[in-house]
Amino acid sequence: MYRTRPQDEGRLCSEFRFSQAFTQQYELGEKIGKGAHATVHIATDRVTGERVAVKVMPKQLGPNGFLDPHFVRRVRNEVDIASHLCGSLNVCFFHGAYESDAAVHLVLELLSGGPLWDRISSNSYGERAAARLVREVLRTVAQCHSKGIMMRDIKPHNFMFATQAEDSPLKAVDFGISVFCRPGEVIKQRAGTRIVMAPEVVRCRYGLKADLWSVGIMAYMLLTGRLPFPFYERLFVSRQKVPADEMYAEILHAPLDFESPPWDTLSADAADLVALLLDRDQERRPTAKEALKHRWLQDAEGSADGEDVPLNRGIVQRLQRFGTYGRLKQVALRTVANHIPTDSTTIADLRGIFLELDPSDSGRVPYTRLQQELEDGTYTVSSAEARQLLGQLAMTEDGSITFTEWVAALMDWSKMYESSEWDVLVERAFHAIDKDGSGTLTADELELVLCGDEGCQAPDDLDAAMREADLLDAEGGIGLEQFRALLAGEIGDRLDLFETRLPSNMESYSGTMDSTMDSTMYGTVDSDHT
Ligand SMILES: Nc1ncnc2c1ncn2[C@@H]1O[C@H](COP(=O)(O)OP(=O)(O)OP(=O)(O)O)[C@@H](O)[C@H]1O
């Protein structure tokens, strides 16, 4: 994620250093959405014909003619967080960023199922359907929190369905006001959308747990079609303006309504989880990982979906986990994988599955064969998602994936990390990258492993990788200890943070819903501008 550095604030227009080749690569089509900071269009890839969404953000200049620092921060947030999370199927896939003199273009996965907001307004969810959606939202939050990212604007507008299907996956969009926040860190700037704002955000002293309150409000809305606060009636039914101070007072003090219908017909488990998430004491409120273990969410998909999924049915989970590691960490893991002896027992099960795909034991599997494996019905992934997942893997020139790559992507690295082999492997990998033997990985050496002999094509590639690895300040290079820390961080991300995408029976939506809610009542308060 972007941290504001003095030299980045107010840079001249061209200085995002994104590619300027948008119009060469894409044909811009009809407008499909509008937010406060951007318009969103459909666009078509001129070579592949693939349809994508393009978020066009007009460049905002400050009075001095330089780019407005808030604008720079918002764009960097979106780009960096989307890059961090691009392996996750719970997040709208980010294809890349472009800029012209007038605008930044963010090319995104096209989500044609519309925002969750629209379905909340026209449907009520049966408990099981609601539980599935809450679980997807919690997974997204858990993935973000494990990367130290606070989403800060969790609301039904910022989750969109991939398709029109009732059981469509739900994906997060719009990370414009998200921030880096380590566990225990306190943020003091009020930001977000009032109706989902946690009490501690209102008080301007908050951390990651504030996201869980917002999930609680979303879960409440999914189950009841309304908000738990008295101001709901005035704002959404009578359509009156409610002063911000009055909303804040109710968020801080008003009793939350768990009595009125339909609470009398909802399960005790549903009420229990929502009440836990809406605990005003953030210390007692569960983390996203704890909430995911709640009883109400356990049978949400009716299928096994956790650490217990066998390797041969857990490829989608593992590819997502690898995809969220960041490019520099991925290449570092590849280098480590390259040093694991092929007969090591730690990779025996991975070898067995690889051999099923590569019966002649050539050490390679064609990319197309893997794509077929993901799309053959074992998993519920679209072609674009299969490409997204496999796009994390480095391909050989003949379009194959090597066994080393397979190990790097699918390995349970936490087990290797705990083994006696780990330290030696990391050291060997470090020395393999440190070509000049200086004991430090320089920018040139990192560029070589990231982008090969030709160097990085997009000027921002190396910077972005360093930002992802939180190593932007490592101007003198990366030493062995930093390299170790890079590899160890988040190594133990639990697999059940990621969807299995194994088929399961989904309950249909049911019931009725108040359809008077209106997106105009839903504006983000971006405190950077207030
Ligand atoms: N990937 C996508 N696929 C299809 N439509 C999208 C996509 N991303 C956004 N949209 C549509 O465009 C609208 C505006 O997008 P978005 O919310 O990201 O803009 P914004 O200006 O950053 O928002 P905000 O007003 O919350 O700051 C969304 O409400 C949605 O309807």
Automatic annotation (TrEMBL):
UniProt keyword annotations, A-Z: ATP-binding, Calcium, Kinase, Nucleotide-binding, Serine/threonine-protein kinase, Transferase
PROSITE patterns from the UniProt entry: EF_HAND_1, EF_HAND_2, PROTEIN_KINASE_ATP, PROTEIN_KINASE_DOM
Residues engaged in binding ATP: K55
MF GO annotations: ATP binding; calcium ion binding; protein serine/threonine kinase activity
Protein kinase domain boundaries: 26-297
SMART domains linked: S_TKc
Top-level division of the source organism's lineage: Eukaryota
Pfam families tied to this protein: EF-hand_5, Pkinase
InterPro entries to which the protein is assigned, alphabetical: CDPK_Ser/Thr_kinases, EF-hand-dom_pair, EF_Hand_1_Ca_BS, EF_hand_dom, Kinase-like_dom_sf, Prot_kinase_dom, Protein_kinase_ATP_BS
Domain EF-hand: 421-456
This protein's name: Uncharacterized protein
Native organism: Micractinium conductrix
